Request: fold
Amino acid sequence: MAVKNYYAVLACKQTDSEETLRKAFRQLAKKHHPDLNPGDKTAEAKMREIAEAWETLGDTEKRKQYDLELSGGAKQKPFTAGPGTAPQSSRPMTQEDFFNMTRNFDGMFSEESIRNSAAKIKSSQPNPMNPMDTTAFFEQFMGIKKPKK
Reply:
């Protein structure tokens, strides 16, 4: 979901000082205040939007967090594994999720899959001392071909 740009609501720049933001908020609040525009629903809605912007940008900590979100930096915290840690999900695992995970796991580690992988490795092994020849991968990834002997 896209983050609403509160700086645009206040007609300011992200680099503007708190004082500049405060002045912009006050000017817009005077212009769109419901007491000065009785019965005007658009002015009332605009005032709510301005107040919401100021509530976030007027607080130093909230502004820092908002700037992070606006730049796309707070989408997801990186997972760092350690003893006893597991990635946390924002929702509980459903039966469908568990079924898909189990099916994928079974597909990777079934006897047939293992036999097929072993057969592929045996058929492509030029050197018995090197069970996995990565020459083709290296050439494709790096765009470099090794000289033929």
